[in-house]
Amino acid sequence: MDAETDLIEDVFTSAEKSLTDDEKHKLEEQNKRLIPEFKANQLENQAQKHWDLFYKRNETRFFKDRRWTTREFQELIQDHPTLPSDSNECRKLLEVGCGVGNFVYPLMEELEALGQTNNYFYACDFSPRAVEFVRSNPKYNEDRIKAFQCDITTVTIHHHIPAQTIDIISMIFVLSAITPTKFEVVIKNLHRLLKSGGIVLFRDYGRYDMAQLRFKSGHKIAENFYMRQDGTRSYYFAETELRKLFQENGFEVITNRYVHRRTLNVKEGIDVPRIFLQGKFKKL
């Protein structure tokens, strides 16, 4: 980052953003023209198609490698309590919504650099095209990683991974792309995959994020759920609802907070505030 750009550190808080009158007006405007039910159903039925087209257009160029994950989630580079300290058992990690590998491959590299080679990675995505990008990476080796296509809102995940075998599941900007009526079945699927004491590492869009406030009339599907221009969808989470979702499906909340991030570029006169929700949830 050059001298003209200043990134203010993330601020963690359990408090929801207070809206200005202008922001309240923007949310009211969104309600003037909602997406019709038939169109909402069509978006649901064609969700995989829209994500496949997204990766066809962008290939591996859209997302940057997520090299921040071990800073935020130290569990990724620490011994995990589901394994005895003297165990030779391989630690198993699952990335739900792997995209083209921007999370899993940097993590594999970092663990190798730390001498932590006793890990096995599963990586799944809704988009077959995204999975093919993961598999075509020169680092792909099924002795260390298995990538496969599945719909996490169905039981297909259990065709690939036995129950109670996973130590850590990451779900980074994934649940928001799923229709809210299916959130509970997703969390139940994660619970079934994890060992007792296993954890879910979560990061996604927070309520009243800048991107939510920018949607115009005609893009809202349901409360806090929107259609993007390319047909993919995005939900914006509140801390209280995410806490309830995990607690009611067999998890203990370790952390669950909003992340307020503000990026300033003095030269360009840009001030970009973002709101994410970040949590760690432990299987009881």
- Helical percent range? 25-40%
Helix/strand order: EHHHHEHEHEEHEHEEEHEE
Strand content: 25-35%
What class do helices, strands and sheet pairing give? alpha/beta
- Terminal-residue CA separation: 42 Å
Number of strands: 11
Q: Looking across the biggest beta sheet, what order are the strands in?
A: 1-10-11-6-5-2-3-4
Mean pLDDT: 90
Sum up the overall morphology in one term.
globular
| Main β sheet profile | 8 strands, mixed
Give Rg in angstroms: 19 Å
Give the low-pLDDT segments: 1-5
- Counting DSSP H or I runs of 4 or more residues, the number of helices is 9
Walk me through what this model shows.
- With 284 residues, the chain is an alpha/beta fold.
- It contains nine helices and eleven strands.
- The protein has an eight-stranded mixed sheet with strand order 1-10-11-6-5-2-3-4. Strands 7-8-9 form a three-stranded antiparallel sheet, covered by helices on one side.
Question: What's the gist of this structure?
Answer:
This protein is of the alpha/beta class. It is built from 9 helices and 11 strands.
Task: Provide key terms for this protein.
alpha/beta; 28% helix; single chain; disordered N terminus; 30% strand; 284 residues
List the helices and strands and how they pair.
Elements: E1 5-13, H1 21-30, H2 37-45, H3 47-58, H4 69-72, E2 91-96, H5 104-113, E3 119-125, H6 128-136, E4 145-149, E5 166-172, H7 183-193, E6 194-205, H8 210-214, E7 220-222, E8 225-227, E9 233-235, H9 239-247, E10 251-265, E11 270-283
Parallel strand pairs: 2-3, 2-5, 3-4, 5-6
Antiparallel strand pairs: 1-10, 6-11, 7-8, 8-9, 10-11
